[in-house]
Amino acid sequence: MPFLSATLDxxxxxxxxxxxTLAQELKAAGRDVIGLGAGEPDFDTPDNIxxxxxxxxxxxxxxxxxxxxxxxxxQAIVDKFARENGLSYTTRQISVGTGGKQILxxxxxxxxxxxxxxxxxxxxxxxxxxxxxxxxxxxxxxECGIETSFKMTPEQLEAAITPRTKWxxxxxxxxxxxxxxxxxxxxxxxxxxxxxPHVWVMxxxxxxxxxxxxxxxxxxxxxxxxxxDRTLTCNGVSKAYAMTGWRIGYAGGPEQLITAMRxxxxxxxxxxxxxxxxxxxxxxxxxxxxxxxxxxxxxRRRDLVVAMLNEAEGITCPTPEGAFYVYPSIAGCIxxxxxxxxxxxxxxxxxxxxxxxxGVAVVFGAAFGLSxxxxxxxxxxxxxxxxxxxxxQRFCATLR
Length: 400
Known about the structure:
- By secondary structure, the chain is of the alpha/beta class.
- It is 39% helix and 12% strand.
- It folds into two domains: 6-44 and 290-397, Alpha-Beta Complex (Aspartate Aminotransferase, domain 1); 62-285, Aspartate Aminotransferase, domain 2 (3-Layer(aba) Sandwich), CATH 3.40.640.
């Protein structure tokens, strides 16, 4: 009898974590490495949020809480949804987990049966398909290429829906592309969903506050209120509030689903870190001015990276609407050979040779379900980004 579960054969380790780990190991070995793989803001957590955590410790707020969050945090989330998204929830419709990933995982575990299908626009965050597989479902990737600005069309969604479809996982702005759907584009998708009442929507809004130029963020249940009863609106404090390590994600949705998610969490991790919960209360209720200040920095970095990558031979880099990623195509580099003798047949070949020959770590596009491309996280300093892009330009110029 095998010791390890056969379920593990259905999934693979996170490629983004693997790239970040390799970059750290090379740095520790003395290599000059610039890591552009991690989806993590380089800003520090704001002082008022840190102070709230310290105050919670000093006040002895260090005991177990309800499995899916304290009442004060749930109320702060209710207020946030009403204030920023026009969505009305009660605290019974709110779930708080150990990061956004747990929220998504709980929902899938609570709802998927063998053979249930989940539509996932590609490029996608690397964890979506594997979480579906772990929960016993079948991911259905829909390729959304550069010709549609990495966005799924209503026609593509319609064609992907079958009687076995249970969820659409929707992410705007997107990891890995930064693509954001306008309200009109989103309405086109929700119109399709209205014709298929058996399909639920899992909206991952983690990058809500990181949008640029004149783009306005909207979420599915806001665009189409009639989808409210079959939408799980997911978010968290990780990206916008620079709280990745605090591990707090949350969602609002139908009470029946939230109750089922609570049941899963009560038998797995139980409550998220108490101190992190109190910090998140302050994040959501406290001053928000720094969000606009950070957005200015991210937009400047986006513009720098897009301009420099578009100057590299064989690379085409669209300008994203949000998040802190770009997803350049390397179609013009495929089939060539690097100065170090590496044959570039795939985007994984490109990324490996780029790291080995220049010390720049990026994540190859196949990890996100759409090739040939790579993802750059520009959540690092202007100086590092400028140097990394210069190295990429030199690397591409030597391809023959």
